[in-house]
Amino acid sequence: MRVLLTGSAGFIGSAVERALVHRGDEVVRVDLMIEAAHGAGEAPPGTHVLDVRDAGSWVDLLRGVDVVCHQAALVGLGARVADLPSYASHNDLATATLMAAMHEAGVDRLVLASSMVVYGEGRYACSTHGPQLPGARRPEDLDAGHFDNPCPVCAEPLTWILVDEDAHLDPRSVYAASKVAQEHYAAAWARQTGGSVVALRYHNVYGPGMPRDTPYSGVAAMFRSAVERGEAPRVFEDGAQMRDFVHVDDVGRANLHAMTAVQEAHPGRLAAYNVCSGIPVSIGEVAEAVAGAGPTPVVTGEYRLGDVRHIVASPQRAERWLGFRAQIGPEEGLARFRTDRLRA
Question: Which has the closest alpha carbon to 67: 19, 110, 113, 20?
């Protein structure tokens, strides 16, 4: 299979590239090498240093490609209003431009890197009033240390339940809004062109090559960096936030499954899948696992308004329709992560 891979030099893109090469596929590598993601590092050999927003100028690279695997994106919350144009440009304009160039080149299969952030808050239930959809948490409640989402009917704390791909989309940050827009543009492109799209909604990805001390660093890398400085990892809220942490090698494998599935998919459709370990873990537990025998994590009570309380994914649809199931659980993976090499 000939695959054009955007963001090929990034943390996840590199894992996808390794998986493709191992399978024997031909990879056309594209990465803009923006400093926020790569520092001052040089592009790996064979990488086309190109801007996806200008894909019309390099449409020839797409000719003869079987599948485009689109990993390039600006990540992070996008906490400032001033960040809006950058996210809209790098994520949404770039995706739309890429798909227009794909159509011109006759490529009609796309694997799109999406994210759990499209869901906003996860799914919840009240023991008395059943399933509930909480609104945004109020700053005054967070300031008082009341982190759990209350039931809108009785105000008792809600209990998290697994999020499947049919969950309501409710982006709560600039980055999240851009990922929802990417999915919507891709779905419209599929309907208009008869193409097929598989959108992979990554949960918390970690592993070797994870960038340190940049906007692209995940919370696991931030904990690692603190331990390496001899400092205690700082855990926001009360540390009880539940997440799903999926190893980057499993994410690479998920993309292989998606590239096979999209070749056989019904034309004119986008299909979305959670990419997760299927094993819930709290942020406090992640900090303890990464710290190991190092400084004991400190629960600070601090918070970020763009964060959600709990989001834990169901792996069932990806297992059934993609044939993907994570092989590395968080207990094994996070213990290994203590000594993994991070990207400078």
Answer: 110
Radius of gyration of the chain, Cα coordinates, nearest whole angstrom:
20
Helix (H, G, I), strand (E, B) or coil at 325: coil
Q: What is the C-alpha separation between 117 and 171, in angstroms, rounded?
A: 6
Whole-angstrom Cα distance, residue 103 to residue 151?
47
What DSSP element (H or E) covers 190?
helix 174-193
Q: Token pair for residue 166? A: 């049919």
Residue 129, CA atoms < 13 Å, CB-side half-sphere? 14
317 touches 267 (CB < 8 A): no
HSE at residue 269, side-chain half, CA atoms within 13 A, is 9
Q: What is the DSSP letter of 46?
A: T
Question: Which regions of the chain are under pLDDT 50?
Answer: none
Can you give the length of the chain in residues?
Answer: 344
Q: Are strands 269-275 and 234-235 parallel, antiparallel or unpaired?
A: unpaired
Over the stretch 268-296, which tens digit does the pLDDT of each residue have? Answer: 999 999 999 999 999 999 999 999 989 99
